[in-house]
Amino acid sequence: MNYIEGFRDPAVAKGIRSKVDALAGSLLARNRPVNIMEVCGSHTMAIARYGIRDILPSTVNLISGPGCPVCVTPTRYIDAAITLVERGIIVVTFGDMILVPGSASTLAECRARGGAVEVAYSPTRAIELAVANPDREVVFLAIGFETTTAPVISIVEHAIRLGLKNVSLLTAFKLVPPALTALLADPEIRIDAFLCPAHVSAIIGADAYKPFAETYKVPCVVAGFEPLDILYGVQGILEQMTQGKAEVVNQYARVVKAQGNLQAQALMAKYLEPVDAAWRGIGVLPKSGLGLRPEYAAYDAELKYGVTVELGAENPACACGEVLKGKQKPPECSLFGTACTPDHPVGPCMVSTEGTCSAYFKYLR
Ligand code: SF4
After folding, report:
1. How far is CA 267 from CA 148, 151, 156, in A?
2. Residues 49 and 138 in one domain
3. For residue 117, is it within any domain?
4. For 282-321, what is each residue's pLDDT tens digit?
5. How far does the centroid of ligand 1 lie from the alpha carbon of residue 186, in Å?
6. What CA–CA distance (Å, rounded) separates 238 from 171?
7. Do 101 and 170 belong together in one domain?
8. Pocket of ligand 1 (CB under 6 A)
9. 155-197 pLDDT, tens digit each
10. Which domain holds residue 331?
11. Which of 23, 203, 341, 348 has the most neighbouring CB atoms within 10 Å?
12. How far apart are CA 254 and CA 31, in angstroms?
């Protein structure tokens, strides 16, 4: 059997859809339309790409949450990165970040003006550049959820081992569970269940969602990225709801373990500690990010260069904040597809390959 095609089998999809229809009908009979939030940008893309919204009953509403790490990073972070480039520092970043608008410019425009902005596919590129340019300073833009935190923090481990003093991190690491807690506390958002992220769960483990099931009585299903993974996830959520249950179900057990990746967790705990973090659209959430421990302050670009990363005013014309909280869908933004397109993005949700606006533009216009 072709492994991928096995997860895209139309006949199996039709069978799941029939079950989903029946379950949704049963819930509707109890006056229960369903809001399911996916909190993973790759899920958002897969849902749009495979047309999953279109085949679900109208009473099952898939809401995209703050699952794109680029999108939740505030404008001031981009401003701080541009400040570093303007001071002659080599700034290394994953590709999506260079097109995200800061207050006045983007890193791409900064590079066009002669700034040293290097797009990397691996964090180790920062180490290579620091070794090759001993008379220059190198800063890696350390954003992301739990998925990318461990590989990025390995920069510090490499730097210590090699005795490098000219490399540091501008950290804006985010933790998913505190964001879910904040969304559940928002009275303007009704979330009945979470389709839990796949990559993040591979690191933190499926058990990390138990508080949401046990305390908030919200069913949580960890699902993969193939269409049948997502449909099974929706079916599993609706089954729980019809039975009045709220549990954590791991339907992505081929990758995700209950306890997660203990090695990655240990690496993160060695160098990082929980800190309050600014989320675009959501605000500052207590202990929702990770920052370098004081003993590794020499690798903290914010301290080393006196730049600050905080929550500032965002472009008022851009509705990314509302999109990230699931309060608006991209077409409800007046700039969607007109002033804001992937070629000329106004907000990060249109830039990132995991952004909700980008997904809607690409697949759902
Ligand atoms: S369409 Fe563009 S301006 Fe509107 S919310 Fe999305 S990214 Fe922001």
Report:
1. 12, 9, 11
2. no
3. yes
4. 889 999 999 999 999 999 999 999 998 766 677 888 999 9
5. 22
6. 38
7. yes
8. 318-320, 323, 330, 333, 335-336, 340, 346-347, 349-350, 357
9. 999 999 999 999 999 999 999 999 999 999 999 999 999 999 9
10. 320-363
11. 348
12. 36
